[in-house]
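mind reviewing this stuff:

——
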Amino acid sequence: MHALESTMPIAVIGVVLMFIMTSGQTVNRGRDEGTLSIPASNVMGNGNIDLFIASDERYSLSGFMFDPILGARIGISDMMQLTGQFIPVSKSFIGPVEAHLQITTPGNDNLRFFGMALSADLFLSSAPDTLSSTAESDKPEYNPYLFPSFLADLDWLALSKLLPFKMYLSIGMVDNVDLLPTYDQISLKTALEWKMFQHSAFASAGAGFYKEKSSRLGPGDASYKQSYFWIEPGGRYRLFGRFSIVGAVKLALFENTKENNPLQPELFKISIKVEAPLLFRETNTEAIRTLIFMERKKEKKSDSFEKRVATGKNLISDMSAALMGPQDSLDALDLDTKGTMKKRREETQKKMDEVEALFKQLDLEAQPKAPALLDTASSASRKSQ
C-alpha cells in the first residue's frame, strides 16, 4: 500500500507531461495501421518504432483465459518491418513469443489502391508449451512453428476522396496459436474499415479450418474436417493525435466439429491494444491522406457558405415579389391606409436594399476578384465614337 501511494504522484506527473507533449501535435497516423486481426499490407517505414501493450480475454469450452501482451514494431527498410511480442506468465518470466517479418511490394510510400505483402510468422511457443507439466519452472518449452501468410488490401481513398474505406484480406496457416501443438490450420480473414481523419471503425470476419495431428491418442484426421466461423466488430480511437487504442469483440457464429475429440474454438473474445509511437517520421502515405481530409473539410465549409448566400438571395426575391404585388388593391383602400402602406413599403424596401448590399459584399469576398475588363472595354468604345 505504501509503495502504491509513493508511485501515485509520479504516475500523475507522467500523465500530465504526456498530455502537454502531445496535445498540440497533429495526427500521427501510421501507414501500417490495420484492424485488430488483420495487419495492413503497408509497412511502417524505415526507422519508425512502435511499442504496444495488449490484452486478450477469451472464453471457450475449456474455460476462460486472459493474456497480457507486450510487443514492438520497427521499420527496417521502406519495404520491410519486424514485429515481435511475448506473453508474460506466472510460471516463467517469458511465455509464448511471436515474431513476424513482413515484406511488401514497391510503392509502399504512396497512397496506393492495391497493396500486398508476404509475412514469415515465427511462433517460438504456445500457451500449452509454457504451462505443460513437463515445462521447467524457470523457462517454458519452446517448440517453434514457422509459417508463411499472405496479405492484400484495397484503399479506396486512392481512387476517390469520397470513399475513405479500406478492404483487407489475409490467408495464413495459423488461426489459433494455442492449438498449434494439436492441429494443422488454415485461416481466412477479411475486413472492411472506415478510416476517418483520426479514428476508424471496422468489421472483420473469418473462418478457421482444423486438421487434428497424429499423436498417442489417435492417428489424427486425413483432412480439415473441423471448422468455425466468426465476426469481429471494433474500432480505433486516437488520443492526442498520437496514441491509439484499438478494441474489438470477437464472436463465434457457428462451428463444425466431430464427435470424437472435438475442436474447442474460441466462442467469445475481447481484445484491447494500446499503441504508442516511440519514433515517428511521417511518410508520403500519411501526408497525402491528411491533405485529402483537410481538402474535404474546406470544401464542406465553402459549400455551406454558398448555400447560406443562396438562401439569403432567395429570401430577398420572395419578399420583393410579395411586397411589389399589383397596385389595384391599393385603389380600394382609403387615403390613410394608402399612406400607411406606402410608408411601410418604403421602410421595408430600405431594409431589403441594406440586406442585398450585405449579401453582395459577402459574395464578392467569397469569389476571387477578376480584372476590370468591362471598364476598359466601355472606355475604348467611347474613344472610338
Notes: Helices lie at 2-22, 127-130, 284-323, 328-331, 335-366, 373-384. The two ends are 101 Å apart (CA to CA).
